[in-house]
Amino acid sequence: MNQRVLPKAHAVYTIAIIGFIYTLHLVIPMYSNSSFLELFADERTVGYIYMVGAAMTILGFLLAPPLIRRLGNYKMAIWLIAAQAALFYGLIVAQSPLVIAACFVLQTAVVALIGLTLDIFLEVYTDGHSVGTVRGLYTATLNASWVMAPLIGTMLINGTNDYRNTYIAALAMLLPLLYLIYRNFPRFRDPSYTHLSPVQLVRHVAHNKDWIKLFSANILLQTFYAWMTVYTPIYLHQTIGFSWEEIGVVLIVMLLPFPLIQYPLGKLSDAGFGEKRTMAAGFALMGLSTIGLAFLGAQSVIVWAAALAVTRIGAAAAEIMMETYFFKTVSPRDSAALGVFRITRPVSYFTGPLIGIVGLLFVSSQWMFAIIGAVSLLALIPAAAIRDTR
Questions:
Q1: I need a labelling partner for 311 at 20 to 30 A (CA). Which of 70, 107, 258, 296 fits?
Q2: CB under 8 Å to 370, separation ≥6 — which residues?
Q3: Residue 390 domain-assigned?
Q4: Which CATH number characterizes residue 126's domain?
Q5: pTM of this structure
Q6: Looking at the predicted structure, is the pLDDT value of residue 148 above 90?
Q7: Looking at the domain assignment, is residue 132 inside a domain?
């Protein structure tokens, strides 16, 4: 086994490459997940499956800190990747709807926990004065995968209903991911993780009022992501009538703002600009432009790609400011608080599908964009109340 200890700069770039591959494996099947599940269940049941996956992920985040303390972050990452490979294999070969649903639910939790271990790797190697730059680089690198992966996914589907090819590709991505972690971090030095009971953890997080505001805003951002990820491809395919190849083009253009603007915004934060104003402006743009989608009657790929890209400019700005703010105020030892911050993502897979399930009882899918846009605007309340770190 390689015994070297990576220098910090080398480690940051290595983790960014690992994060790129990790996100690629996550996103290749993501935008077709809901369509794949709809081969075995109706739209409402798909929402319930996502909600169960969210519950499993929340449980995983609560159980992860003691497991990381016991195993170490390196071994935890290795075991999680192995488990993810087994679950993808289940999705590839299973025929039973119950087995498929179980594998999907479990991989939802496992993939989130792999991301948590990468956060810990990166936090340990990040200097305090460069949090915005490092997080901007890392987030932009991850989001470059979001731009590429939908095109790969739609090419693999190739106009058919054979969505399992996306899971085969995602499984293949796990091999270089496993190798890079095994090769570079066997000597990773875990920080002395803070041990907190669930009650102590709640008190610890609640004591920092800015964290509460940040977590509230992040739940709303992640709710936006969750709803758009599940329902937008279905809407574009079934209601607007786009082919999967056209949807791939739309998704690529839509996601371009993330790798293009997040790194410079992170550097701007380190230069003392502060996070609050950019975060609030991002939420305002995201919410208002999403409401505007409800009035978009065009069946043009270019128009939809441009309109969705505007929503993501706002989302990208809000996201990198929240990431930078949180990691400027948290210690690498505080894996429990980091887990709580990441819990906001699975919580959104309750709120996102729940908004869809309830909303569709009263309005058409077209007007759901207005509802999710209005919900997104609520994030302006906590975002405006946060104290800047500058």
A1: 107
A2: 290, 291, 293, 294
A3: no
A4: 1.20.1250.20
A5: 0.78
A6: no
A7: yes
Report the alpha-carbon distance of residue 246 to residue 242 in Å, rounded. Answer: 6
258-272 burial string, b = 16+ CB within 10 Å, else e? bbebbbebbbbbbee
Hunting for tokens 């009650």 — which residue is that? 199
Q: Which residues contact 207 (CB under 8 A, 6 or more apart)?
A: none
1 inside domain: no
> What is the domain extent for residue 127?
8-385
Q: Which of 325, 310, 300 is nearest to 388 (CA)?
A: 325
Mean pLDDT in residue range 164-179: 93
- Measured CA to CA, the distance from residue 183 to residue 163 in angstroms comes to 32
- 337/212: higher pLDDT: 212
Has residue 2 been placed in a domain? no
Helices (H), 185-300: 198-207, 209-234, 244-255, 257-268, 276-293
Q: What is the mean pLDDT of residues 218-229?
A: 89
Domain total of the chain: 1
Q: Which helix (H) or strand (E) holds 318?
A: helix 301-328
Instruction: Give counts: helices (H), strands (E), the chain.
Output: 16, 0
Residue-wise pLDDT tens digits, 276-296: 889 999 999 999 999 999 998
Report the alpha-carbon distance of residue 140 to residue 130 in Å, rounded: 15
Closest Cα partner for 369 from 378, 379, 359? 359
User: d(Cα 349, Cα 372) in Å, to the nearest integer?
Assistant: 13
Digit-coded pLDDT (tens) for 56-79: 988 888 888 888 888 999 999 999
